[in-house]
Specification:
With 249 residues, the chain is mainly alpha-helical. The protein contains 8 helices and no strands. Its main location: cytoplasm.
């Protein structure tokens, strides 16, 4: 190989490595921006969850009013999804999905909690995907089944808090019983999926603990209810029967 050929080969190698550098820098920069978006989604989703807990037992609000408040809180989150969609346009979503996963899972937890409070049912994958879509119904990016399931698994922790809080309120015994049954069914159904979804088995252990706490609260209500001669009617009418305000859960 002559000097000219060697020089051309060297320049070709340098050009190839320079191209690799540009691609890697672009990947890292885009990944960092998506991680930042994911964190913003997480923060706003947590705020929505806090709001839902505040209004869940507010008798002054009906289901439609609660839903309207939640929709207002969803608006800034949708803006973050739109920003993520811009970053992902023309890219391989699989390369970046893990960067968004924490925020998406927190969002699924929030919207599934809102959906349960409004309808008393589990939000479906299709319904959740629709809330990660443009007003025209075009998905900003795909909702993976793993993010959906892991987000739903986290929902059980919020339902545990709802059940225990409700058990100390007037007529809350029925709501706590409904939540207990719902969480019990989720726990049983998710168990068969643990071999196929990373991290679900770990979350299942947390879900099981949440279920135990709900059942323990229900057991406590039944024991205390034996003090009422016409249980459950008079028990439900007494708002002071529930757990102490400073009792941890």
């Amino acid at each position: 190989m002559g000097p000219a050929s060697a020089s051309a080969a060297r320049e070709g190698v340098l050009a190839a490595f320079n191209d690799f550098r540009v691609q890697i820098d672009d990947y890292n920069d885009r990944r960092e921006r998506l991680i930042k978006i994911s964190r913003d989604i997480t923060i706003h989703s947590k705020r929505l969850i806090f709001l839902l807990h505040r209004i869940a037992n507010d008798d002054a609000l009906d289901a439609q009013q609660r839903a309207a408040e939640c929709r207002q809180k969803l608006k800034p989150i949708r803006a973050f999804f739109e920003a993520a969609s811009d970053e992902l346009r023309g890219q391989d979503f699989g390369r970046y999905s893990q960067s968004l996963s924490p925020g998406v899972q927190e969002y699924i937890e929030a919207i599934s909690f809102s959906h349960y409070l409004e309808h008393g049912t589990l939000i479906t994958h299709a319904q959740a995907q629709a809330l990660i879509s443009t007003p025209a119904g075009e998905p900003w990016f795909p909702l993976t089944h793993s993010d959906y399931l892991l987000g739903i698994s986290d929902l059980t922790g919020e339902l545990m808090r709802l059940a225990i809080t409700s058990s100390g309120l007037r007529q809350g015994r029925h709501k706590a019983a409904e939540v207990c049954d719902f969480v019990r069914r989720c726990t049983a159904d998710f168990e068969s999926l643990t071999p196929y979804v990373n991290e679900l088995s770990k979350k299942q252990s947390v879900t099981t603990e949440s279920l135990k706490k709900i059942e323990l609260a229900a057991y406590g209500i039944a024991i205390r209810g034996s003090e009422y001669h016409d249980f459950p009617r008079s028990f439900d009418d007494d708002p002071g029967h529930g757990r102490p305000a400073d009792e941890a859960y």
